[in-house]
Amino acid sequence: MSQIQTHWTDLIPQAAQDYIEGRRLDEVECIVADIAGVARGKAMPASKFAYQDRFYLPNSIYLQTITGEWADNPMGAFTEPDMVLTPDWNTASAAPWTADITLQVIHDVHDQQGKPVPVAPRNVLKRVVALYEAAGLKPIVAPEMEFFLVARNLDPNQPIIPPMGRSGRRAAGKQAYSMSAVDEYGKVIDDIYDFAEAQGFEIDGILQEGGAGQVEINLAHGDPVALADQIFYFKRLIREAALRHDCFATFMAKPIEGEPGSAMHIHQSVIDTETGLNIFSNPDGGESEAFLHFVAGMQTHLPAVVALLAPYVNSYRRYIPDFAAPINLEWGRDNRTTGLRVPISGPEARRLENRLAGMDCNPYLGLAASLACGYIGLKDKKMPSPECLGDAYMGDSDLPYNLGDALDIFADSAPVRDVLGVEFCTVYEAVKRNEYKEFLQVISPWEREHLLLNV
To answer: Which pLDDT tens digit goes with each residue over 74-101?
Structure first.
């Protein structure tokens, strides 16, 4: 028996060690994120996990659509060879909602020749981070997660409604930053905190957003892959906390008609690995040319990655005026009407906030897409448009307004495909076009109501 097999629990994070200390570990979940960000994998008794150092899954999991259908493999024959999964011990985390004592472990995905599988979303993000590292740079991100707590919905034909609060009334909208609104579903929030603590996650803050039952969780800044792992875990954690209290948590971009959508705002900065300094700031504390190049890259290439930041037909319902969602590529200092916002900070924390991503995106792909645009900007060294000093909602938008158009732009962008990987982009487009085709075959209530007898 190898040392890793004998002592694997010594290799996992302290929070996971603390969770199982003095308790009998029953089960280990071996998981990876698919194209949608859904956890796929195997669960097994801990005693069996201890004797295996790798596991196998077919590569077809990356061709599965959100509806469970399968896209045609654009890369060749559909033979479904096994991929090799090896545990990333740094990701071992408690699953505190389970009846048995369970750990989750995210796995690295390689082919049988030992090469990273290029279509695995976590590998796509690692690829982008590696490009920064090759240039002597380290990207730093701080995501914000918005989501809705909603009443249980067992009939997809019925609209989503807010949950019942402790007052006996349904959660109300237009209560942004209200502490009383958060208290209405305080028991869910308490479980989120407890689960996060058991998993060793640091929450920077929780607040009430503008929608009815809409919550925002801010995470501390850090390494992109580690933060994407956390968001991947957080989505499950939050869903489980909600289910304990007879409601659902949803990360749909626009679940409730007439309410704001849910974003995954991404704060981004870049560190020089040699000096440890933020390259967005000059020695005198002013904005650097590298910062402006990063902004220009975002402005130029964000349209080509909207298909990753807004991956479903529902995502584009968020991109409408007057609902606190960015619909532009403008940038501005402390201006929340711009798609690219420069928050107030000191020189060491200067960063750019990408406000376009929806919370429905795969966190690995959302971060990879956003960082890819900034990376291309740093390489191209172009300058951005003048700063927007007014209401950016009043201007025109260069963003696609539906998934089909977004995929067309994505398919035509050679710079983005080079950074993210041509094979990944080809497979992603195939999966998303399959989903879009399925959606177009569904007749909506709006069509039946207004067209059935009137046209």
So the answer is: 877 667 889 999 999 999 999 999 999 9
